[in-house]
Amino acid sequence: MKRIGILGGTFDPLHQGHMIIAEHVYEALKLDEIWFIPSHLPPHKQEATVSSEDRLQMVKEAIKGNPHFHVSAIEIEREGKSYTIDTIKHLKGAYPEHKFCFIIGGDMVQYLPQWHRIDELRQLVQFVGVGRKEITGKDLNEDVQMVEIPRVDISSSIIRDRLSHDQSIRYLVPESVFEYVKEKSLYEPKSE
């Protein structure tokens, strides 16, 4: 049985914060692998800025060279809204011998009760919240396992904003993502 951490997201674009979360959870929980799953249409956010194909490719570029990081396109291939319940049910059916945990930001833990079919989802997967020492699973949600990570204030929206103002994102994203964004002219400033 493999123990797999799932890190889902829009990854619009993937940044160093995502990589730090994945590595810290992998190590803290002694997982076998981390699977990055880019969403097709996130149910709680507006549509992504760039295509799902570009977002998937950025993840592929970022995780090259890390043997315990993998990417799955199941939500992109499924299309429609990307509900976690559908993804977890699919994964459990396709990989019944694996045990999955689903990684979320510590700030999202308090919103878990509002997730689509959360009661059923809690029966299928262990949630892992990431955050700082002062955030604890006991304070926020009894059944969420918390993993402490260094505070990294990077977000995809900050990166998109910097790019829209023709500012550098070097070192905010993995170098391979930086090169991919440049090569494909993604997130270019809007002409006025």
TrEMBL record:
Reactions performed catalytically: nicotinate beta-D-ribonucleotide + ATP + H(+) = deamido-NAD(+) + diphosphate
A Pfam short name: CTP_transf_like
Its EC number(s): 2.7.7.18
Pathway: Cofactor biosynthesis; NAD(+) biosynthesis; deamido-NAD(+) from nicotinate D-ribonucleotide: step 1/1
Every Cytidyltransferase-like domain range: 6-162
InterPro entries xrefs: Cyt_trans-like (IPR004821), NadD/NMNAT (IPR005248), Rossmann-like_a/b/a_fold (IPR014729)
Function description: Catalyzes the reversible adenylation of nicotinate mononucleotide (NaMN) to nicotinic acid adenine dinucleotide (NaAD).
GO molecular function, one term: nicotinate-nucleotide adenylyltransferase activity
Recorded superkingdom: Bacteria
Keywords: ATP-binding, NAD, Nucleotide-binding, Nucleotidyltransferase, Pyridine nucleotide biosynthesis, Transferase
Protein name: Probable nicotinate-nucleotide adenylyltransferase
Homology family: Belongs to the NadD family.
